[in-house]
Design goal:
The protein has helices spanning about 1-30, 35-45, 80-85; strands at about 70, 75-80. It has about 100 residues and is mainly alpha-helical. It folds into two domains: about 1-60; about 60-99, no CATH class. Strands 1-2 form a two-stranded antiparallel ribbon. The longest helix is centred in the N-terminal third of the chain and has 29 residues, at about 1-30.
Length: about 100
């Protein structure tokens, strides 16, 4: 599991670094006002990027338990770990009304 978690963190870091570059190049490619030769050069630049780092390929994994199912995106915690942390009062500003 530790290997999967390290791999997941590496994918997130790559996605964060490359996201803006790839989106910018895609917008240049789709813009019809540029010449065809310029857009072909942009396509060549896009082919050098690894497409394994796109957001649709990155799966949510809990940071603490390395589980894939039932993960809250903003906290990156599974629902079980989230409930456990709330019950032990380690998370502030959250109350356990009913589970």
């Amino acid at each position: 599991m530790l290997y999967k978690l390290q791999k997941y963190k590496k994918q997130r870091k790559l996605f964060k670094n490359l996201e803006k570059k790839i989106i910018f190049l895609k917008s240049l490619y789709k813009n019809q006002y540029f010449s065809r030769s310029f857009r072909e050069r942009v396509v060549q630049l896009l082919q050098h990027f690894s497409f394994k780092v796109f957001q649709s390929n990155i799966k949510n994994i809990c940071v603490l338990s390395s589980k894939r199912g039932g993960v809250f995106r903003c906290q990156k915690l599974s629902r079980h770990m989230f409930k456990q942390l709330i019950e032990s009062r380690k998370l502030k500003n959250y109350n356990k009304f009913s589970w």
